[in-house]
Design a protein that fits this description.
alpha+beta, single chain, about 45% helix, five-stranded antiparallel sheet, 4 domains, 30 strands, Jelly Rolls
Length: about 1000
């Protein structure tokens, strides 16, 4: 082996050692999820990404491509939702080989390692750094606060991990013959000055680096976080075009800018073509999404970085756990890294002067290139900082109103990734300059740095007392002071011992980042049972799903998570010795989230829900509009999360239409009165003459009925006036009738001196959000113990309303009781009572049903108006989006009761057996979406949109088989485009690789010629 080859091999091995050390640090920082098998049970990784990964794992391991999601939002596209990352290649091995709770955490660790590697490669390639400087870039970027705070946003982390490599490949594609530093020492830099200009537009795809850049851009797009792809592309444009644009404006030389624009458009276009298999279905979904016309303006600027919080964002929070509202504002790189970045700035100015004197000599080509790179990094850093201010930046306000990309995304603080990338580069340059004595350390430099750090700390503390209202912990301030003094002291030590001081600063950087990471959510990793363990409510719904003859019944959850789990003591005994206090807390909160199945956890366990949550292209716009049936327009959430906005259970007709068989609620506002439990979840509000009945009376021998009630709007009602009648059926034709009187059994709920009747015995104050309200309790007794079979309440008051909150059967002999469900919103029974309650809807229409009356609505608003009419009955009438003529009755009419029975239900295939006595409309209460096709007895027929969101088909009389299948054309067209792009890529690579070999040989010969000339 020749000496140059041996030297290059040794250098390459040293690079591998540096990369391996970066990966070891990633494992050390994330040992809880990487090595200890723990999981993150907070934020989006638990309630959003884990459910999607669980469904993708089930589908792929079953040999099925997951096209449709029947578990959330009453049906929605799965693959077309880019955040699921179905076509991201790095997801597939994990989905095929591991359970979801392991794979979703493994991808976090793998992509942090990938981020460290790509940052190192960028440092060695584009930034022309030695191993120490490139290693600094890798540590600062991968283990800094920004990526550490984003580990719960899995697809965002996956996309961001590629950002440094995008910049490196862009530089390399413009200068394909510029030598990389991999395998070389820091001072071994040889550049062919004739290759510093960009390639011509005609030879772009002949470069393997351009092809690689297109592939990486495609990977970022396939990772699924569209905003990350947008930020990366804008950052790449600023990095690659900024200086050429300035040169064009200053010198009127537009050729280089035009070349770079064409280059960027071509490589980006190829990346888009490669990702078309995902992008086209996502584009189709976005047209029907709530974001189709952009977000509301207040959403576009939400989570902007406040100037008062700016300093806090860049300083590590050693003893201050980051609150959820500020998780997007974390951008610290460590005080040591900030010091190194600041130290690199004077070197920048010095380099500028040297470059001005050296441009006449081709030997200064490398320095000239580095000068341009430094300006590009500065532009990247500044752009990210300005755009992250969002609401506080007038330019961003203009962009958010006029520019489509900015109008479709929120959280401007995410632009901080560009700033963090720039800071990582500056820190790498600073470490290199300090280590190799490229600049002399002076007292003035250290004094200015100390002053800057003090001002930054004061800004952070004052900002905490100001607009943000968050005080900085004293321990955190002590940490800043210790880190700042150590950094300044090490810089002073670099006067005599530069290398030792540099190593000391890097050690300080690692310690800082590790200590700051303890305040981030990933340090709270808890036991894996937080994700995998079942809860009683989930088990009950799964059993009901097994027993269902058709599709699994839907549910809606209204429960809060402020209750304590019934097994709290057992959880603390089992896991308390193993977990930290915060990790144990997360485990308990996770148990409560699973108990109420919020917000996307139904997808993880395969239980269909009405609700869901998505911050991207879902939910469908019509799903959001449908919520206006039971919520005021200003309370409708564009992200879903219906559970958080419902103050009361929706009217029974909507639950019936949505095929909601189960309702989950908590017990927070139930009452124990005189040692009797009253279920106050439902109740009935009865005006004069109105009636409510208990739909299901369990067998229970009782001697009395407890009634909790109050009156409203009867201030002038005299004492003793009758307000209602309670009828209790005791079997064998016996009915006991009790009269409720004002002032004796019940009274005005908001009692005041103006009320003319007496105040009845108040049982307590259980009104949600209105503790001054009174609930009155009365016992209605009968002489002999009996088993009631019916309970009916009728209002007889002349005006106002009788509100019956709850009723319970009581056996006064034993103290036993049985709470009942009285409702004026439908017929329900209590099916499960534990930490939460599960009620069964006894009037549910089923997933598929027949109606014979239709109304055609010219638009969605007209459809909503018709459905909001009190006379609208979804069991008898359907609102169609277009005129539909019922088919001619060419078949014999059937005898008996007509029916619609689902005989097969799979995500992309639904088969219904229909028996119709007359032509009818078959309504399937699953979301309508392009790509769904329907056949009747094998013959294709039109599929219509019904009741704003659902599917309908016109059915002839008789017995038929109706088959719904989901085959979206956008997927097949996108797959064809991607396939063509892939073939073109292979062909281009076939031409590019031989050319690259020839260029490499010519480059070596050129170098040898230069060195021969020197000799």
């Amino acid at each position: 082996m020749t000496r140059p080859a041996h030297s290059q091999l040794v250098g390459f091995l040293r690079d591998l050692l540096a990369i391996a050390l970066l990966w070891v640090l990633v494992l050390a920082f994330f040992w809880r999820v990487a090595l200890a098998g723990r999981v993150l049970a907070g934020g989006d990784i638990f309630t959003y990404f884990y459910p999607y990964w669980a469904e993708a794992t089930r589908a792929l391991q079953a040999g099925r491509l997951p096209l449709w999601n029947p578990y959330l939002f009453m049906g929605a596209p799965f693959l077309a939702n880019s955040q699921a990352g179905v076509f991201y290649p790095l997801n597939w091995p994990l989905w095929l080989l591991l359970p979801a709770h392991q794979s979703v955490h493994l991808t976090v660790v793998l992509h942090l390692c990938l981020a460290a590697l790509n940052a190192y490669l960028w440092g060695r390639g584009s930034l022309r750094l030695g191993r120490l400087g490139a290693w600094t870039v890798g540590v600062t970027f991968a283990l800094g606060g920004y990526l550490g705070a984003q580990v719960e946003h899995v697809n965002q982390l996956q996309g961001l991990a590629w950002l440094p490599l995008i910049l490196a490949l862009y530089d390399k594609s413009l200068h394909p013959n510029r030598k990389s530093q991999i395998g070389k020492s820091a001072n071994h830099q040889i550049t062919n000055p004739q290759t510093r200009n960009p390639q011509s537009a005609f030879s772009i795809l002949h470069s393997p680096f351009s092809i690689a850049l297109s592939i990486v851009l495609a990977l970022v797009l396939l990772a699924g976080h569209t905003q990350t792809a947008f930020i990366s592309l804008v950052g790449l444009a600023a990095y690659g075009l900024g200086l050429a644009l300035w040169r064009g404006v200053r010198e009127r030389e537009w050729g280089p800018l035009a070349q770079r624009v064409v280059h960027l458009v071509v490589v980006t276009g190829l990346g888009v073509v490669l990702a078309a298999v995902q992008l086209l279905p996502t584009w189709e979904l976005s047209r029907l999404s709530i974001r189709a016309r952009g977000l509301p303006f207040n959403e576009r600027v939400s989570f902007s970085l406040s100037p008062s919080y700016l300093a806090r964002a860049f300083l590590p929070g050693f003893a201050d756990p980051v609150p959820p509202e500020h998780i997007e504002h974390v951008a610290y790189v460590g005080i040591a890294a900030l010091s190194l970045a600041a130290f690199s700035l004077p070197r920048w100015r010095h380099g500028t002067r040297n470059t001005e004197h050296g441009t006449r000599n081709t030997q200064h080509g490398t320095r000239n290139t580095q000068h341009a790179t430094r300006h590009s990094v500065a532009l990247l850093l500044t752009l990210g900082l300005l755009l992250s201010l969002g609401l506080y930046n007038p330019l961003y306000l203009l962009l958010a109103r006029l520019v489509p990309g900015f109008a479709h995304f929120r959280v401007p603080a995410r632009w901080l990734v560009l700033t963090v990338t720039g800071l990582a580069a500056l820190a790498g340059w600073g470490a290199e300059a300090l280590y190799h004595r490229h600049r002399r350390v002076t007292w003035r430099t250290c004094a200015l740095l100390a002053l800057a750090l003090v001002l930054l700390g004061v800004w952070a503390v004052v900002g905490g007392y100001g607009a943000e209202g968050e005080r900085v912990a004293r321990l955190t301030v002590v940490g800043w002071a210790a880190a700042g003094m150590s950094a300044v002291g090490l810089l002073l030590a670099a006067v005599r011992l530069p290398r030792l001081a540099t190593v000391g600063l890097l050690a300080l950087l690692v310690v800082e980042l590790w200590a700051a990471g303890l305040a981030l959510p990933y340090s709270r990793a808890t036991a894996s049972q937080a994700l995998t363990g079942l809860r009683p409510a989930i088990a009950h719904l799964l059993v009901a799903e097994e027993e269902a003859r058709g599709p699994a019944p839907r549910f809606i959850s209204m429960s809060d998570i402020t209750f304590d789990p019934g097994d709290l003591a057992e959880i603390e005994v089992i896991y308390g010795p193993q977990l930290s206090t915060t990790a144990l807390y997360d485990l308990i909160v996770a148990a409560k989230h699973k108990e109420v199945l919020s917000p996307n956890l139904p997808l993880a366990f395969g239980v269909p829900a009405v609700d869901g949550y998505d911050g991207g292209v879902l939910p469908l716009a019509r799903y959001v509009a449908l919520q206006r049936l039971f919520l005021p327009a200003d309370q409708v959430s564009m992200d879903g999360r219906l559970r958080e906005n419902l103050a009361a259970i929706p009217d029974g007709r909507w639950l019936n239409l949505f095929d909601v068989r189960y309702v989950i609620t908590d017990k927070l506002y139930d009452a124990w009165l005189d040692d009797v439990f009253y279920d106050l979840q439902w109740g009935a509000e009865l005006g004069p003459g109105q009636v409510a009945a208990v739909a299901h009376v369990p067998r229970f021998e009782a001697t009395a009925l407890g009634v909790v009630s109050y009156l409203r709007g009867v201030v002038a009602l005299p004492n003793g006036a009758p307000v209602g009648v309670v009828e209790v059926g005791l079997g064998a034709g016996i009915t006991r009738t009790f009269e409720l009187r004002a002032g004796e059994h019940t009274a005005e709920g908001l009692y005041s001196p103006q009320v003319t009747h007496a105040q009845a015995p108040a049982g307590g104050h259980f009104w949600p959000g209105q503790p001054e309200g009174n609930d009155y309790v009365a016992r209605l007794r009968w002489p002999q113990p009996a088993v009631p079979t019916a309970v009916v309440v009728r209002a007889t008051l002349p005006q106002g309303a009788l509100i019956v909150r709850g009723v319970s059967l009581i056996d006064e002999r034993t103290g036993g009781f049985q709470s009942l469900v009285l409702s004026d919103r439908g017929r329900f029974r209590l099916a499960h009572s534990g930490d939460v309650k599960i009620y069964e809807n006894l009037d549910v229409l089923g997933r598929a049903f027949l109606v014979h009356q239709a109304t055609v609505a010219p638009n969605d608003e007209a459809a909503l108006a018709r459905m909001q009419d009190p006379g609208f009955d979804p069991a008898a009438e359907v609102v169609l989006s277009e005129e539909v003529g019922l088919p001619n009755d060419v078949e014999a009419r059937i005898e008996g009761v007509e029916s619609a029975r689902v005989v097969e239900y799979a995500p992309e295939r639904v088969e219904v057996e229909v028996a119709a006595r007359a032509p009818a409309y078959l309504v399937l209460s699953d979301a309508w979406y392009p790509g769904w096709k329907v056949t009747i007895d094998g013959t294709p027929v039109p599929l219509y949109r019904a009741d704003l969101l659902f599917r309908a088909v016109a059915i002839p009389a008789g017995t038929h088989r109706v088959l719904f299948t989901f085959r979206p054309a956008s997927l097949y067209i996108g797959a064809g485009i991607s396939l063509v792009g892939l073939v073109g890529l292979v062909v281009a690579a076939g031409f590019a690789l031989p050319k690259a070999r020839r260029n490499a040989i010519m480059g070596i010969e050129h170098v040898e010629h230069l060195e021969e000339g020197k000799r």
